[in-house]
Design brief:
Blueprint lengths: L3 E4 H4 E5 L13 E3 L19 E2 L1 H8 L9 E4 L1 E5 L5 E2 L2 E3 L7 E2 L4 E6 L6 H7 L3 H10 L6 E2 L2 H4 L3 E4 L2 H40 L11 E3 L10 E3 L16 E4 L1 H6 L8 E2 L1 H6 L10 E4 L7 E3 L7 E3 L3 E4 L8 H9 L1 H10 L10 H4 L3 E3 L3 H40 L4
Parallel strand pairs: 3-9, 15-19
Antiparallel strand pairs: 1-12, 2-10, 3-4, 5-8, 5-10, 6-7, 6-11, 13-21, 14-20, 15-16, 17-18, 17-20
Helix pairs in contact: 3-6, 6-12
């Protein structure tokens, strides 16, 4: 089938939002679309921000930036670079319940050109290798990648006939919906774990069931029961080697997996930093940015240490179960407490001293272990869901590749 090689702006109309200033923000009026509203899931969440513009100001200055139902909006800032080294943005459709909403800087909306293009095709195409490799050459910024309409005008799209675009979009939509349902299943299992906790133990901060309360420092094991990673010059980039002892960091905790990351130190450095060694049953918690994320160390991982962005908590297993303690730390009420104690402004930083100030409920150990057994069953179901999702992701990537090289 013949594909038309054309510039993106010939196939689609697009427009970036205006550069609205902070002093223009209001607490009510017309919602202002922000990058944070556009989720990786392909949905809009308008609860992510609370910025509005005055109705009169929009009518006078920005009426031509009001989005319409059916517009495709994408983020052009605050976007990520994938493991393949290419940029990946995210997009979502404006729906009736989102209106009225005004575009903002770093958000770009698209409309299809009559009889030429289809927006649902475009939503999938912006995740294709063909788009990503082109836009990755155009983006600016070091710490934060950005692009705009001037960059998009340089992009070339291989566009099949309109009916073929719609057929491809239908196939990819169906496959994406299946993936979304699997992700939703995983999220529901996460909610189930917290629901079981609340049912058995209640809110861990307000303690409505009247459990014994203890300082977290009283339920950890040994001198280094709560230990942050090596500070300052104790661990530098030049200390890393190709093989040896693993250095665990936020990438493992945020990903929820010890399979990611490949930093190592040698035997001499490990012996100097062995107080930061990771052992089965330890709870690792991130300290910077996405602080408060936790991960329990399983049996059988490579021997190693934590880096400065983590703290390890070693529970006294005679008093407190690792799963129970990790669930307390992940609980929304505990996370709010940690957030209120954090410093570092917008970045958000906690440290071992802050964690040591926490008080926690301490139900009987047998009840904790019963809870841990239930969580183990839930985690087994999550693992099956995640395995299936990985298979679906691989299938979707294959379909996507075939769709945009004309073999689907």
């Amino acid at each position: 089938m013949r594909y038309l090689k054309t510039k993106l702006d010939k196939a689609y109309w697009f427009q970036e939002g205006p550069g609205v200033r902070k002093w223009q923000f209001r607490d009510e009026g017309i919602k202002l679309l922000n990058v944070a509203n556009i989720l990786k899931s392909g949905q809009l969440d308008l609860n992510k921000t609370d910025k509005y513009l005055c109705n009169d100001e929009v009518n006078e200055k920005y009426s031509h930036f009001l989005a319409d139902k059916g517009d495709l909006v994408i983020a052009s800032s605050g976007i990520s670079i994938d493991e393949d080294g290419l940029l990946r943005t995210r997009g979502a459709f404006i729906e009736e319940q989102h209106l009225p909403i005004c575009m903002n800087t770093s958000t770009i909306r698209f409309k299809a050109r009559d009889s030429i293009s289809d927006l649902r095709f475009l939503k999938h195409w912006i995740n294709s290798y063909e788009f990503r490799v082109q836009i990755s050459r155009e983006v600016t910024g070091i710490a934060q990648k950005n692009f705009g309409p001037s960059h998009l005008k340089k992009i070339i799209i291989n566009l099949p006939p309109l009916e073929e675009q719609k057929r491809i979009a239908r196939i990819l939509d169906t496959a994406d919906e299946i993936r979304a349902k699997r992700r939703q299943g995983i999220e529901e299992l996460d909610r189930l774990a917290q629901s079981v906790f609340l049912d058995m133990f209640g809110d861990p901060v307000t303690n409505p069931k009247g459990w014994q309360v203890s300082k977290i420092t009283d339920v950890v094991s040994g001198k280094y029961g709560i230990k942050a990673g090596p500070f300052g010059s104790s661990l530098k980039k030049e200390d890393y080697v190709e093989n040896g002892y693993r250095v665990y960091g936020q990438e493992q905790v945020i990903a929820g997996s010890f399979d990611v990351g490949d930093y190592y130190i040698d035997e001499i450095k490990f012996q100097k930093l062995k107080n930061c060694a990771v052992n089965a049953g330890d709870i690792l918690m991130s300290l910077v940015g996405s602080f408060g994320k936790v991960l329990i160390v399983p049996n059988g991982i490579e021997k190693g240490i934590i880096n400065p962005r983590l703290v390890k908590i070693t529970p006294d297993l005679g008093l407190i179960d690792s799963t129970f303690l990790a669930t307390i730390l992940e609980n929304e009420a505990t996370q709010k407490t940690l957030k209120s104690m954090a410093h570092g402004g917008t970045m958000g930083i906690i440290n071992a001293s802050i964690i040591k100030q926490l008080s926690i409920i301490l139900p009987p150990i047998l009840l904790q272990k019963k809870f841990a057994s239930i969580i183990q069953s839930i985690e087994a179901q999550k693992s099956l869901h995640q395995q299936h999702l990985t298979e679906l992701d691989n299938l979707f990537a294959s379909l996507q590749s075939r769709a945009f090289n004309g073999t689907l």
